[in-house]
Amino acid sequence: MGEDRRDRWYSGVTRYQWLVLAIASLGWVFDVFEGQIFVASMNEAMPELLPAGASRGDIPFYRDITLGMFLIGGAAGGVLFGLLSDRIGRTRTMVLTILVYSLFTCLSAFAQSWWHMAVFRFLVALGTGGEWAVASAFVAEVFPTRARAWSLAIFHASSVLGALLAVAAGAFVVPYLGWRWGFALGALPAVMTIWIRRSLRESDAWVQSRAAQAAIGERTSIGNLFRGTLARRTLVGVALATVGLATYWGTHIYGKDALQRAEGWRTIDVPMNAPLAEWQAALKAAPPEVQLSLKRWEMFGMLLVTVGGGAGLVAFGPLSERYGRRGAFLAFHIAGLAAALFLFRVLTSVEMIALFLPVFGFLTLGMHAGYAVYFPELFPTRLRSTGAGFCFNVGRFTAAPVLFLSGWLQSSAGLALPNAASLLSLLFLVGAGLLAFAPETKGKNLE
Fold it and tell me: Which terminus of the chain has fewer Cβ atoms in its 10 Å neighbourhood, N or C?
């Protein structure tokens, strides 16, 4: 006998609830594209934007400052727009966040110096950080308890489509039209705001919460996150996000480079553990057709990591329903460390790396869906968007120094990229230890 359809997680989910999930997910898709288009084109953009007198050996320093500014901007945007969402509503705030990240990604195409790009990445991140906070709270409030983990995991897993769009831009736009055209594509999501305004209404939970707050004269504020039992939940959430974002930007995104470097070792005879300056010099000296081939290998690696990561994000939902939120987080943290060390310290052949990259993506990214599932469950409705946004996006701010450290290790200390990525992967152990302080929220109704 098969499972009773009435017992399945999606049983009874309404057409409007699916619509909310679809629109929230599309906002997150383009949100991720705006972030990943820099990852897909930074090897072309940063050499062109270096200041006068800088060498290619300085690229990691300026690149990671730019990445760090994106994290800091995400922190500011998550807090600002999360707070605004709890005050003026989910739909209006979602429109604002999409307009912000669309506008400034497009303007990034006109950057003339590395610091222009860093400022634009900060401004883009204001919108991307805010959109996640609003959308995750919206989905959590609209879906029933039994469907919440699944729906939020699907929401966060939609980020894969954004990364795939960035891969496509990196493979078919950047090599032929230049990196600036990749950023110009960022203006397109602004059109989606018309659909949002016409199709969505505020969640009943938010409307009721605002009415209750108005009756007693209470205002939403950041300080409320640190009162009573919420303080511990807030600190745990921020710490988990810090580990996740530091390992994402310091380890996960370099899976694609492992494949490119392995192919480079085979074609232009540069060791995989060569410092970045040596790698960049050899790549520049290679014939154009070799450069194009290696760019395609890089984008193929990004594709493999992204596909595996998407499967990991979707898997977090059912795993957290079976083993609890803490159990799923623990499994991904431990497995993510093992996957990173195996990729960067053991594998050397193109074929083996290509086969392993989807597994690497699955294990190092899957826990990120947990932030969309877990953080909205930690806070009551009046603080849900503020709290979820604060945890996830302040984690961007606290993770930023790790990126500055990564850039320093590769530029000043001369550490090869695979070695730096391996070193930062040890942070997965810190995340596993944090779970001792995390409350379990599986199966509990939203407060």
Answer: N
